[in-house]
Design brief:
heterodimer, A: mainly beta, six-stranded mixed beta sheet, three-stranded antiparallel beta sheet, 1 helix, 9 strands, B: mainly beta, seven-stranded mixed beta sheet, four-stranded antiparallel beta sheet, 11 strands, globular
Amino acid sequence: QSALTQPPSASGSPGQSVTVSCTGTSSDVGAYNYVSWYQQHPGKAPKLMIYEVSKRPSGVPDRFSGSKSGNTASLTVSGLQAEDEADYYCSSYAGSIYYVVFGGGTKLTVL
Amino acid sequence: QVQLQESGPGLVKPSETLSLTCTVSGGSISSYHWTWIRQPPGKGLEWIGYIYYSGSTHYNPSLKSRVTMSVDTSENQFSLKLSSVTAADTAVYYCARLTGVGQIGYWGQGTLVTVSS
């Protein structure tokens, strides 16, 4: 099972919107609505930001949104703030054998 | 609020067994799935496997031959053993709790394990 594909970097200015893509296959992203997104600041543990494609855990700002089309999921951060600068990882349920696969991560820079 | 804390040696010799324990506080270990994820320095996340509080397990096929997970409900702890380690197993190891299908809602702070002689 291969890792999901994410762009290595993305950037935007404060107040702008940025979208990060996550491309999988018909065996993971395309097959299930169990895509999650995690935010990781340097030296910290990842934090769940989006689950089940588009749902936000309690406490996550509504500036963060998720969507999916076919084999590609997307995370959009609107109204960029300095504290949004971090690495973002997507993951997807991949069935009963591989269970979950992660993307390689995207470094989001707030210019 | 559930909190998780990894513990174990930070240095393991090649060919030996890496052993880590995760202590859960702020809630019971019962009725949940608990998981281990690792992250090599400067790289992405890799799922290692999960264990249910009852003891049933599910491992990443790429690591399955070397991984053993166990749970101790009396101590509110679960553990990871990874045998025959090499330098490629050097990583920050996170223990965590699944909060849905493929969804990791609670994470420990992580512990760096270096494989070196």
